């Protein structure tokens, strides 16, 4: 493959304040550069319009995982390796750890960040379905201060999202749950490893006495953005997990998603796999209500 690297400028501010000053001054000309695992592919292919990059990798304020009584906070530069190494994430947010384990190879896991995965906004990315199912909240920072937004409201069209050019994604908050939950994450690709998803499914449910008390279902690669399937959730919420209720949820999901044919898969395959994964998730929740 021919590599085409145009001339560019990369600066590495020492502090987050300097970084935010730069972003605010540039009117959208400066692009944050975290692990670079998405950006380098585009840069080398000559597909990035930007010529000015601000390296954020060295900013300690954007690094670290904190746990308090109500939530786990992952700063934007948290890598997939960091996620996999964290005991609380393993115990309480296993779908995120699984997504991290199935993202790229070791080099990508050491360098790629959750912040980059979110802001790159690929509909086929592997962490977003898990983050949606866990009700993640994003925190953005700019010279005007911090603001929070539910992750489910962040993406609103293909590569369109609620972040301004003068803002950085600062942190991702995951609310902790006191309940026993069933967690179900499946990435379906061409191979078992190093594949881009054809369908990515994340479901989490609280089931008591065979009745679904809380449920979140999210999918990647079946729409222009990663989606939470709220109609399907409503169809199964407070329902006993009978065969009929599971089939009713599957019919609702079939009406809720509209996968497309593209280079990686077909509409029919994506739809069939999504429905099968939903059935499998709910059947497992019935057999094994608590994790
Ligand atoms: C070989 C290979 C395999 C891959 N496999 C997978 C896979 O299996 N699953 C998957 O989901 N992805 C995969 N990826 C994609 C990529 O590794 C991930 O999306 C990664 O998380 C991107 O993080 P990064 O820090 O490298 O982002 P970067 O490339 O640095 O940035 C990506 C985008 O996010 C923006 N950005 C980054 N951080 C911030 C921030 N804090 N605030 C505001 N904007 C920010 C950048 O400006 C850019 O637009 C793969 C990539 C490669 C090259």
Strand content: 25-35%
Helix amount, in percent? Answer: 25-40%
**Helical segment count:** 11
The structural class is alpha+beta
CA-based gyration radius: 20 Å
Termini Cα gap = 47 Å
Strands side by side in the biggest sheet: 4-5-10-6-7
Dominant shape:
globular
Short description:
Helix content is 33%, strand content 25%.
Keywords for this structure?
alpha+beta, globular, 33% helix, 11 helices, 291 residues, 4-stranded antiparallel sheet, 5-stranded antiparallel sheet, binds flavin-adenine dinucleotide, 14 strands
Q: Can you offer a commentary on this structure?
A:
With 291 residues, the protein is an alpha+beta fold. It has eleven helices and 14 strands. It has helices at 16-25, 39-44, 80-84, 87-92, 94-101, 106-111, 114-120, 127-133, 230-236, 243-256, 267-287, and strands at 9-11, 30-33, 52-55, 65-67, 71-75, 137-142, 145-150, 155-157, 160-161, 168-175, 182-188, 199-208, 211-220, 227-228. The strands form four sheets. A five-stranded antiparallel sheet has the order 4-5-10-6-7. A four-stranded antiparallel sheet has the order 11-12-13-14, sandwiched between helices. A hairpin with a 2-residue loop joins strand 12 and strand 13. Helix 9 runs antiparallel to helix 10 and helix 10 (243-256) runs antiparallel to helix 11. The protein starts with 8 loop residues before the first strand and ends with a helix. The relative contact order is 0.12. The structure holds flavin-adenine dinucleotide (FAD). Flavin-adenine dinucleotide binds next to strand 2, helix 2, helix 7 and strand 10.
């Amino acid at each position: 493959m021919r590599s085409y690297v145009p001339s560019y400028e990369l600066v590495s501010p020492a502090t987050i304040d300097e970084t935010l000053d730069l972003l605010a001054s540039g009117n959208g000309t400066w692009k944050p550069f975290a692990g670079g695992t998405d950006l380098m592919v585009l840069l080398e292919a000559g597909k990035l319009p930007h010529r000015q990059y601000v390296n954020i990798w060295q900013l300690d304020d954007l690094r670290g995982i904190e746990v308090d009584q109500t939530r786990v906070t992952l700063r934007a530069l948290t890598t997939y390796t960091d996620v996999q190494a964290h005991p609380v994430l393993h115990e309480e947010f296993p779908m995120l750890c699984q997504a991290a384990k199935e993202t790229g190879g070791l080099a990508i896991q050491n360098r790629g960040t959750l912040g980059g995965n979110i802001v790159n906004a690929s509909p086929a990315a592997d962490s977003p379905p898990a983050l949606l199912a866990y009700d993640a909240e994003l925190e953005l920072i700019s010279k005007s201060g911090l603001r929070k937004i539910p992750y489910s409201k962040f993406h609103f069209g293909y590569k369109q999202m609620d972040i301004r050019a003068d803002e950085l994604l600062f942190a991702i908050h995951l609310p902790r749950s006191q309940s026993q939950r069933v967690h179900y994450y499946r990435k379906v690709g061409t191979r078992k490893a190093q594949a881009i998803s054809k369908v990515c499914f994340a479901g989490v449910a609280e089931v008591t006495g065979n009745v679904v008390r809380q449920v979140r279902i999210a999918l990647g690669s079946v729409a222009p953005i990663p989606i939470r399937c709220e109609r399907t959730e409503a169809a199964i919420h407070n329902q006993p997990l009978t065969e009929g209720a599971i089939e009713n949820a599957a019919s609702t999901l079939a009406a809720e998603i509209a996968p497309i044919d593209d280079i990686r898969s077909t509409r029919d395959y994506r739809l069939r796999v999504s429905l099968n994964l939903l059935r499998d998730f709910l059947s497992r929740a019935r057999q094994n209500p608590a994790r």
